[in-house]
Write a structure and sequence with these properties.
heterodimer; A: alpha/beta; D-Maltodextrin-Binding Protein, domain 2; 5-stranded mixed beta sheet; 3-stranded parallel beta sheet; 10 helices; 12 strands; B: MetI-like fold; 9 helices
């Protein structure tokens, strides 16, 4: 027992260190803050510009939305996109109020105005669009598999039948491998817990968006590798209160402008690019309804 | 469509919750009884082991025990194949400490004269405990023992964060797939837990009435 605890502690410490290392140097390009922008009176943009903005993001996904232990503000691609949007509202990055949203509370937080918008690897789905608004996508990625480096039995999702596959409780990734490919789902609270289970041989694979997995594989290339093509499409969108079409138009225009003037690419390279993800073609955005 | 999905997923989840509860409850009861016996035994090392066990596991947060069982054990090459049994280990070692203390308080309600009488007719310590003292002790502690198992029922939900697809895991899936029916999702899962707890407390009050002794 005692030995087990010591080992677990060591593993946890090492993991924390590794994660910390990953989060380094991910300061994004400086965004230009708009000087007192003009918005129609009474619009959400005008209101946020005056009263400040609260943005819901993930704190546990390296490269996407991650709060380093001891850091004041989170970092990652979602965070950079949020800064770009806030800048357009005339709000400086240091004036944004970050709020952690986990997968389960993103809709409730938008519905009861705990946050003004959500950029938290928030995949656009029809079910979600029934109750909240989702502008974008600002990034399209897909689910992949992380396996042990010496494991040749899994080369794609078709090999998952009956295998133990770890992902985060309540994620779309765990649903896909369970329902489409017959895998045995192993839920954990965070991806790093899943990676620990893969490293100690308790699960056969970890699955989630490729960008996140590449970050973990880069930390431990001797033991871990990412295999196969992307086998699902996750379209990250910006969550906002349902029905605010004016705000949606603003979000869509802002994202499109950032793609055109290169800040989108800069933001990507400073965050996910650092973890070894190639900058993809910018996505086509959905029209606002 | 939503309703049948809700029911079938909750059924899947609660099946595993009940299995976790059953196995952990069984082991906790066995270990707890042995521990209680040790804590009242005349042999000092036994008493010491019992006391150390109770003070260690009762004072360790359940999540820490889960971490040790789920992350620590496989690192030592133990039980790498089964998340279920690792969860059972965490839950039963934790709950056994509470079962033990519950029983020990029951043992203290049995008048010393009973044990003295048993000894005077030549019974060993084991016989005294098993035939004379424990049966009376169990009767006295049925209500607090039911509370211990009700707490265990709710503690099984911690396993959702440690690789087990039990009811709380299914709740997260329901929130993901039907974010518009939050309230119904929560009501559904609450009903499931309430049913389990109702069965436990029902059984407890039935037992209490059947084995009650007038003193």
């Amino acid at each position: 027992m005692r030995f087990g605890r010591t080992k677990a502690l060591c593993a946890a410490t090492m993991l924390a260190l590794a994660l910390g290392a990953c989060g380094e140097d991910t300061e994004g390009g400086d965004v230009e803050v708009e000087d007192s922008p003009e918005f129609p009176a009474g619009s959400t943009m005008a209101e946020l510009g005056e009263e400040g903005v609260t943005i819901g993001v993930k704190f546990d996904q390296p490269g996407i939305g991650f709060l380093e232990p001891g850091a004041d503000d989170p970092s990652g691609f979602d965070i950079e996109m949020a800064k770009i949007i806030a800048a357009e509202l005339g709000i400086a990055p240091e004036d944004i109020e970050w709020k952690e949203t986990v997968s389960d509370n993103r809709e409730p937080f938008l519905e009861n105005d705990t946050v003004d918008m959500v950029l938290a690897s928030y995949s656009i789905t029809d079910e979600r669009r029934n109750i909240v608004g989702q502008a974008g996508p600002y990034y399209v990625t897909g689910q992949q598999l992380l396996v042990a480096a010496d494991d040749d039995s899994i080369s794609g999702p078709e090999d998952l039948e009956g295998k133990k596959v770890c992902s985060v409780t309540g994620s779309t990734s765990i649903q896909t491998v369970e329902e489409k490919y017959g895998a045995d789902p192993i839920p954990f609270d965070t991806y790093s817990d899943c990676v620990t289970q893969l490293q100690n041989g308790s699960v056969d694979a970890v699955t989630t968006d490729g960008a996140i997995l590449l970050g973990y594989a880069a930390q431990d290339p001797e033991n871990l590798k990412v295999v196969g093509e992307e086998f699902s499409e996750e379209r990250y969108g910006v969550g906002y209160s349902k029905g605010d079409t004016e705000f949606c138009e603003f979000l869509t225009d802002t994202i499109e402008a950032s793609i055109e003037d290169g800040t989108w690419e800069e933001a990507f390279q400073a965050t996910l690019g650092e973890a070894g993800v190639e900058t993809p073609e910018p996505p086509d955005l959905d029209p606002c309804v | 469509m939503y309703f049948s999905e809700l029911v079938s997923r909750l059924a899947d989840g609660f099946l595993i919750t009940v299995q976790l509860l059953g196995w952990s409850g069984l082991f906790a009861a066995l270990i707890g009884t042995v521990l209680a016996g040790m804590r009242v035994s005349p042999i000092t090392p036994f008493r010491a082991v019992g006391t150390v066990y109770v003070n260690t596991f009762r004072n360790t947060p359940l999540v820490v025990l889960f971490l040790i069982a789920v992350v620590g054990l496989p690192a030592l090459g133990i039980l790498q194949d089964s998340f279920f049994w690792r969860a059972v280990i965490a839950l039963s070692t934790y709950t056994a400490a509470f079962v033990c203390e519950c029983l020990r308080s029951g043992i203290n309600t049995v008048q010393p004269g009973q044990a003295e009488a048993a000894r005077s007719v030549g019974m060993t310590f084991g016989q005294t405990l098993a035939i004379v003292v424990l049966p009376q002790a169990f009767r006295a502690v049925i209500p607090p023992l039911a509370s211990v198992f009700i707490a265990l029922t709710k503690n099984t939900s911690v396993a959702a964060a440690f690789g087990i697809t039990e009811a709380t895991y299914q709740l997260s899936n329901l929130i993901r797939d039907f974010p518009g029916s939050l309230v119904t999702n929560f009501i559904g899962i609450s009903i499931g837990y309430i049913l389990i707890v109702a069965v436990i407390s029902g059984t407890a009050s039935l037992l209490e009435r059947r084995v009650a002794v007038a003193r």
